[in-house]
Amino acid sequence: MAQLEDKEILIEVCNHCGKDVSRGSGNFANRVPDFNDILTRLDNNLIFPIGDFVCGICDDNSLT
Questions:
Q1: In 3-state terms, what secondary structure has residue 53?
Q2: Using one digit for the tens of pLDDT, what is the confidence trace for 21-61?
Q3: What 3-state class would DSSP assign to 28?
Q4: How far from each other are the two terminal CA atoms of the chain, in whole angstroms?
Q5: Which residue has better confidence, 35 or 9?
Q6: pTM for this prediction
Q7: Would you say 32 and 41 are in contact if contact means Cβ atoms under 8 Å apart?
Q8: Nearest CA-CA partner of 48 in 63, 35, 38, 57
Q9: Where would I find the H helices in the chain?
């Protein structure tokens, strides 16, 4: 029986605007990983808190 590996699943959407940031989307090169957990993202009022990245446009428009 095959063993399941512990792999981290990344949701490749921007957690600010919801744009696709996966390879081939045109937004892959400028994406920035967001290391906060989902609860922190919810506390920060992000619209798409399950997304594990911030796209380049939202990163440029960020206040921080």
A1: strand
A2: 999 999 999 999 999 999 999 999 999 999 999 999 999 99
A3: coil
A4: 48
A5: 35
A6: 0.82
A7: no
A8: 38
A9: 38-43, 56-60
